[in-house]
Amino acid sequence: MKRLVSKILLGITLLAGSACTKIDNYDGPNASFEGKLVDATTGGNFQTSTGSVRVRLEQISWSDTPSPQDIPSKFDGTFKDSKLFKGKYRITPIGGAFWPIYEPVEMDINGKSSHDFELTPYVVIKNLTSTLNGNELTLNFNIDAPVTAGMPGVIDVQPYVNTTELVGAGASIYDYSDLMKVTLNKDWAALTDADKNMTLKIPGLLPGRTFYVRVGVRLNDSFKSSNFSEIIEVKVP
Amino acid sequence: MKSIRKLIIAIGVGVSLLTSCQKLDIKPTNILTDDVIFGGEGGVNSYLADVYRKLPIEDFTYRPTGRDGRWGFNLHHEWEHFWNAGSATGEMVGPYGGMDIGGGCAYWPYSDIRAVNYLIETLPKYSANFTGNRVNEILGEAYFLRAYYYFALAKRYGGVPIITSVQNYPEQSIEELQVHRSKEDEVWEFIGKDLDQAYSMMPETSLRARANKYVAAALKSRAMLYAGSIAKYGSVNFVDGDAKAQGYVGIPADKAAAYFQQAWDAAKLLDGHYSLYQKNPDKELNYADLFLDHDSPENILVRDYSITSNTAHSWDATFSPRFMTADALSRAYPTLEFVQRFVQLPVTNADGTPRRFDNLADLKQGLEPRLLATVYFPGATLRGRQFDMQRGIYPTFSGTAAAEVAKQPDQRNRIVASDPNTLYQGLPVIGQTGIRPPGSSDEVSRTGFYVRKYIDYKKPQNECGLFQSTQSWIEFRYAEILLNRAEAATELGKADDALFCLNQLRSRAGATVMSMADVTIDNVRNERCKELAFENHYWWDIRRWRIADQLLDNARFRGLMPYYVLNEKKYIFLNEPEVFERNYFFDKKFYYEPIPGGELGKNPNLYPNNPNY
Question: Would you place residue A103 in the very low, low, confident or very high pLDDT band (cuts 50, 70, 90)?
């Protein structure tokens, strides 16, 4: 009886031992990909906010019909993903208020790869100035379009106000931001001079706080995203 | 000893070898075979019963996002009917955190379509078992059922693979089984063709809850109307992408008129075979009864429920407050925006101050009977109990309604409560059905209204518990057909025909009749939204009109909050945001649902996926 048990144990040990000879030799996700989204009109980084611009990766060395994975762009127009499998990718920035890129970049991502993309925004917000009168903030700015032919319509213009530097669509104080929205719903050609040279007033800012403010113009394309101005800091005394 | 053992083994092996040669070709006793199923009317009825049960009818229990990883149809033990499409889109506000239903529930019913294809292929082999024209009639019904499945697919995904025969594995190779997506307009055309065939083969009448030729025509009018509006409006407002460029989503604009014409023609076929429900001269009660009367002449196709078969639903228990039911709770409430589709309620005086009412119920005076039969207003009565909802009490009130609502909550001089039994100077603050402040339990109105449509007001309160409601779901009713026809007619420039249809509905509803000048596409659509409210049409309508992204563009919905002004002993109503102040946003990509990920993994020919997914 004892010999039988020890024979069975020996058999199990042999089976278990031989079952594990294959080693997972596929490299872990140790490649990284980073870069900047460059605004073609200014040469600076493309201003964005949450839930807007993302860099779409499709690993074509893995499958002909790969499931896309997205790297969201940071507010300052940079992006980075340090946990990617090495391989050949098709890469397209999507989701923001810029002219669509119909010719995606195909490149190998291996080790530390990087690539910058040049994006042409639909609308550029220029000459943003702010004046604080008591607790009422006045914003003056012009909007301009680098390319007007075939441009999607302009839905609305609104300020975004938040108490942190992370300010934009989905990250703003409703009463100071969404309630101050100016609805246009017009094609670019139909915009008047007053629409293009706008003044927004934000009353009732709480005293003693620092606010971060920017302006967004929302376009009626597939994504309904906005072009944003730079962020300015406003200290309410 | 040893030899005996050998002998026993030898005999044993010998016996088992000999007996194993018996033929085991006996009929299985635990499954029904083709010759039983197709042996006569009874077998086919039981086969079809299963197909009808799985039919994607968006009834009381339909849950657009599915549940526990399952499709939203025929969920087991589903009672939370307030998780419906209306309450995610602003017809009502409900438990959804916002417009959360855009991604759908990965519905992909090809196994159910296979069952229909199997019937179509197999039944003719057994035609000797049926008399007269029955085989053709049953085949016609099968074509209708198949079209119904494809309709549910096309309105979600656009172009899908069209499978018209039974696929077999391993007889067919994997490559053969990976059928390519068809273009969107090919799918709509296929649906139209199946329905034409169904119409020509089916009889004029059918068993209750089964299709006849007019049911096929009814579905055709709905489907072709969808196709027409997708062609017309989807070619203007769309999301760019590979699937769009290759025609898997979207229909060329020049096909719109032909689809609208088909919708109109199909609707016209029902003329004279069904009629609007007008049994009760009291127009409000009549409209309420039309959803409860088992034998309404307006019903074209219904789905029935019963307690004994464990199919009863819980509409009564989950759309009225617990005060009027036997258990459960309500969580979805009509919005003020919906009510204002009927009328701007006269709650504000010319100078902007809130109008004073002596009684809560006075607000209902003079409103359209159809509205009162669709929505329970403050002051209405159900099962002997009054909808006594208040948002709170003002000891005194001065100034305009707008100025009061614009104040910060802590600066408003009002008494509120989260407990229905809280009293202020001996008077209930919110009432048993009243509106609680944010953060209270979610079981009473957030808008000041409750749903009335389909509520069985004659049922005693103690029978209004979970799984005790058995009123039928009306999948097709004649009112919808008139609305389909009116919309198609308006799109085709036949305003006089649209007017004829709309005024039938409006006079039944107790509304004023329209004139020719009123027949605009916006008014026709508004009429549809009013008549078919809470019947799971609204979501698909605003989608096919391609206006959902404008209507639900960070939308926040409002309610009408009743208050008691103590020193004046009067009621006022304030237009305020619904209590949860939720935000509803429709992303343009939701005009189509994504092809389910699991299916994309199995069949690379389903690529490209719909735009922006």
Answer: confident
Q: Which tens digit of pLDDT belongs to each residue from B100-127?
A: 999 999 999 999 999 999 999 999 999 9
Tell if the CB–CB gap between A67 and B597 is shorter than 8 Å: yes
Same domain, yes or no, for B333 and B448? yes
- Quote the mean pLDDT of chain A: 90
CB contact under 8 A, A222 and B611: yes
Determine, for residues A65 and B607 on separate chains, whether the beta-carbon distance falls below 8 Å: yes
Give percent above pLDDT 70 in chain A. 97
CATH number of the domain bearing residue B121: 1.25.40.390
Catalogue all structural domains in chain A, each as residue range(s) with its CATH number: 31-119 (2.60.40.1120), 124-235 (2.60.40.2060)
Beta strands in B174-219, from DSSP E residues, in sequence order: none
Q: Which among A65, A100, A224 has the least Cβ separation from residue B549?
A: A224
Instruction: Identify the pLDDT of residue B30.
Output: 83
What is the gyration radius of the CA atoms in chain A, in angstroms?
26
Same domain, residue pair B561 and B600? no
Residue from the list A67, A100, A224 with its beta carbon closest to the beta carbon of B240: A100
Instruction: Confirm whether B287 is domain-assigned.
Output: no
Identify the H or E element spanning A157: strand A154-162
CB B560 within 8 A of CB B434: no
Provide the sign of the torsion angle of the four alpha carbons B591, B596, B597, B602, taken in this order.
Answer: negative
* Interchain contact B607–A (C-beta under 8 A): yes
Which residues from chain B sit within 8 angstroms of residue A67, using beta carbons? 597, 600
Contact between chains at A222 and B553 (C-beta distance less than 8 A):
no
Nearest to A65 among B238, B240, B604 (CB): B604
Contact A222 B600 (CB under 8 A): no
Q: What is the pTM of this model?
A: 0.91
Examine residue B362 and state whether it is found in any structural domain, yes or no: yes
Measure the CA–CA gap between B56 and B59, rounded to whole angstroms: 9
- What range does the domain containing B412 cover? 319-460+557-584
B600 with A65: Cβ contact below 8 A: yes
Question: Which of A178, A181, A46, A68 minimizes the C-alpha distance to A117?
Answer: A46
